[in-house]
Amino acid sequence: MSTVMIKCPNTGLAVSTAIETEPSVFRQLPKVASRMLCPACGKEHVWMTSSAWLAGAPRLVETRRPAKTVAA
């Protein structure tokens, strides 16, 4: 079992949702909103499974290409 994690929008820290599940189950979860009290900042956050990940699992990282410069 792995812990479902999200990123605190206030601190940028990875925090546990206190939900534990198997990777095969996590991949099948519906894309619904959930609420939690954040242990990092103390605020309530609404999160979606599409923005969550499993602790210890590899994550895809968004990369941006550098802007092209145009010669004058």
Which bin fits the share of residues in helices? under 10%
Poorly predicted residue ranges? none
Structure classification: mainly beta
Tally of distinct domains: 1
Looking at the structure, what is the overall shape? globular
Biggest sheet strand order reads 2-1-5
Question: Over the alpha carbons, how many angstroms does the gyration radius reach?
Answer: 16 Å
The chain-level mean pLDDT equals: 86
How much strand? 35-45%
Order of helices and strands: EEHEEE
* Tally of individual helices: 1
How many strand units? 5
Mind sketching the topology for me?
Elements: E1 2-7, E2 14-21, H1 23-26, E3 33-37, E4 44-48, E5 53-54
Antiparallel strand pairs: 1-2, 1-5, 3-4
Molecular structure report:
- This protein has one helix spanning 23-26, and strands at 2-7, 14-21, 33-37, 44-48, 53-54.
- By secondary structure, the chain is mainly beta.
- It has one domain (2-54).
- A three-stranded antiparallel beta sheet has the order 2-1-5.
- The longest helix has 4 residues, at 23-26.
- The radius of gyration is 16 Å and the shape is globular.
Task: Give keywords.
3-stranded antiparallel β-sheet, globular, 6% helix, 1 helix, mainly beta, two-stranded antiparallel ribbon, 5 strands, 72 residues
